[in-house]
Amino acid sequence: MDISTFTIHDLDSEIAVDHRCSTLLKQFHQSLLQEQIDPLEAGQLALGADYFVREFVVGECQENLFEINPVRVRQFAGHWYIIKTLEPNLKELTGILQGVAVFYAYLFQQGWLDEKKHQKIKTYTTDIDFYRQRIDTFWDISGDDGYSNWCQKCPLPQIQDV
């Protein structure tokens, strides 16, 4: 696989990358089914990975899913998911993060991701206590600078225009 074809340069390449991600996620889903994973569970794992990759990594950050800084997982789960979801909750978020973890393990097994990045992503997908605290403190925001203080504890990436 040519990992560079997942790099976004402009609007046309973003559309092409989104399509490539969709194809890759379908392959991931099929591999889960071949491993005899329950079809419902396989679908949920693929759905979680899809949401992270296509909505956040590609859509929001406009980054190559293979070249992300693993801290993107923390930024996604500890900030972006919370502010972009009508009713952010730990059960849903945990399911998404399981999908992300299994998907990046799949990429590692295929030889498309190095061990260090794989381990860091795995670490960030399992930091459930941190994400619980982020959701709880989000609901407790008050005062003029409450939201700003909340944001500073887990800031989003600075997005560059493509």
Features:
162 residues, mainly alpha
What does it look like?
68% of the residues lie in helices and 0% in strands. With 162 residues, it is mainly alpha-helical.
Ordered list of secondary-structure elements with their pairings:
Blueprint: H1 11-34, H2 39-60, H3 71-84, H4 90-109, H5 115-125, H6 128-139, H7 146-152
Helix pairs in contact: 1-2, 2-4, 3-5, 3-6, 4-5
| Low-confidence residue ranges | none
What is the average per-residue confidence, as pLDDT, rounded to a whole number? 94
* Residue share in β-strands: under 5%
Tell me the overall shape.
globular
Largest sheet: number of strands, sense, barrel closure: none
Brief digest:
The protein has 162 residues and is an all-alpha fold.
